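Predict the holo structure. Ligand: manganese (II) ion.
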Amino acid sequence: MKIIVLGAAAGGGFPQWNAASALNRQAFAGDPNHPRLTQASLAVSANGDDWLLLNASPDIRQQIVATTELHPKTAPRSSPIKSVVLTGADVDALTGLLTLRERQPFTIWATSYVRRVIDANPIFDVLDRSLVTFQTIGESAFAPLPGLTVTTIATPGKPPLYLERIEGIGATEGASIGIRITDAKGKSLAFIPSCAELTPTVVDGASNADALFFDGTMFTDDEMIRTGEGQKTAARMGHVAMSDVVSKIPGRKGRHFIHINNSNPVLNRASTERKKIEDAGWHIAEDGMRIDL
Ligand code: MLT
Ligand code: MN
């Protein structure tokens, strides 16, 4: 299985358009210790030719341009992207679908919750349903590409920010899922970019994968309040803090944090927080990182 990190940042990216903290200013300035990151997404392939995207971030065009494997190769129009699996309906997880609108066939896999959100918004009708097929992620395993089998990891979450007024902030079935992908050799990848609680199911699903990309939104629960960048804790946003994750899921080769918010001090490669995470055996994902399992 081939894995490419298309984007490692949380919603807003790094730097975020309106963020003027020291961290973000270093990234705007191009400091090599503060590499810029696009919004979280992975590309996965069994054969190196056909690719599955995990989430479709608002930065998808830039990510495709930056990734040779995803360039169209057959004229006049084509794409190695054959399938997209969505783990939620947040802006940073699905608005990239709007970029994939140029009459190209591919398949989108989403929970019935996420499909309902998409169906309720007519802007997604830019995806011509005679070419773009929607499939529902349910209980059973599915194969978004030949040679790759996907199962879900039940992951506590909440409805997207833009639905909080209508739906509230309580746990909602299918609003956010983790996924596990296994290839024909039995190698496995777990992608859990949004997780509100470290349940035994989550810890188990995360611990057993050969490659793991886990919610690394914030380093500490209250970091945005302390820096004056926001009013919300990580928990209120549906995320666990990195410091709790490393205490429950021991680090080793293949364990990565992804979906890193622009307030997280680990974004500075020279920070003490980054060192703590790396000393615990975890890695911070960065755009363009490639893993072959
Ligand atoms: C999140 O991960 O909490 C959301 O993507 C936040 C947002 O919608 O900006
Ligand atoms: Mn997000």
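Residues 10-11, 90-92, 160-161, 194, 237-238 surround D-malate (ligand 1) (CB under 6 Å). The longest helix spans residues 22-29.
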